[in-house]
Amino acid sequence: MRNILISAGFLMLPLAASAQSMVDASDANTLANLLKAEGYQVEVTTDKVGDPLIKGKLDGTNYDLFFYDCTDNANCRTVQFQVGYDMTNGMSLQRANQWNSDMRYATVYLDEEMDPFLQMDLNIDYGVSTTNFVDNFKMWSNVLGQFEDFIDWN
After folding, report:
1. DSSP 51
2. Nearest by Cα to 137 from 106, 114, 104
3. What pTM did the predictor assign?
């Protein structure tokens, strides 16, 4: 009898997981509304090629959520969080490489003025749970803060 009850409990797990709603990159407004529901201030606009773009602010820092792999500026498949920092003396390649070597979730590259740009990609083409998307957003927020500490950003 005990084995039957335990087995029945395991059968319930997939049902609970499948009841959770899923999101993908096909609609910027859906992702923006999800972030707004979590208390974040975001705005949906378009980038320079007409693809969706979400602009937001975390602890005084403006960031962008770019949409990629789009078809005719819609039905996008992936997203990328990005923020750039205009530093007086830029950042050394050695420090950028140190960040990329030590950190796992976001990478930094340097522009022609040696200013750092932090990026974090998400492939949500086949959908992720709303909880997973929000968790990834919180990871972005955390990594952004760690990077600002790393570069002594005010």
Report:
1. -
2. 106
3. 0.85
